[in-house]
Amino acid sequence: MNKYRLTGILLSGFIKILIKTTKYKVVQSEEAVKQKQAIIIFWHRKIIPTMLSTDFVEKKSSLVSSSKDGDILEEVLTRFDNLVVRGSSNKDNVKSLKQILKLIKTGFSIGIAIDGPRGPIYEPKSGALYIAMKTGLPMIPIGGYTNKKRIFKKAWDKFELPKFFSKSCYYAGEPLYFTKDSDIDASMELIKSKLHEANRIAKEYYDKEYR
After folding, report:
1. Hey, where are the domains in the chain?
2. C-alpha–C-alpha distance, residues 12 and 208, integer Å
3. By mean pLDDT, which of 95-104, 136-145, 183-192 is the weakest?
4. What does the pLDDT look like over 59-91, one tens digit per residue?
5. In angstroms, rounded to a whole number, what is the distance separating the alpha carbons of residues 56 and 60?
6. What is the Rg, in whole angstroms, of the alpha carbon atoms belonging to the chain?
7. Torsion angle in degrees (nearest 10) through CA of 102, 105, 111, 113
8. Cis check: omega of the bond before 162, within 30 degrees of 0
């Protein structure tokens, strides 16, 4: 076992302990929880909100980069009941897209950090949209807000890690639907807008719950 996978195992244990010390509220739109299958989309820095707000998904899979950092994340996600596909969220990564489409046919949903694996931050890649257009599955945007968190400022994604005893709100938004005739540029802008909106809504629910 390489050091990155060992780090992932240790990190998953740390996250489980961390979660037990935090207070968090999960808000899920009525339409989101009705979906038997979906493409779960989120910004790369919001991985933890996604892990904690998608309990309505029965068969979970996640796209993780093929990098060494991806080894860490794979170990974490498998310990949170995710089947992991290694690859990129760019539609040109044919191998990972084929794997995802195969999983979808067997009833899995797929989680994709839509600006990953290397950024730029808040710039969606087209792979998730391609999957939505090809399969007809809805996209569900995930947002989150935490009052006390560590931000990894040197990381391209400015990854967020809640601090012990923090308070959070996580939000699963309204499904987005696309067809084979959807305009690519307009669809990408809509996805970006809805992800930012999901994070704003999470902050609004946080203010209602804890202030």
Report:
1. 3-210
2. 30
3. 95-104
4. 999 999 988 889 999 999 999 999 999 988 776
5. 10
6. 16
7. 50
8. no
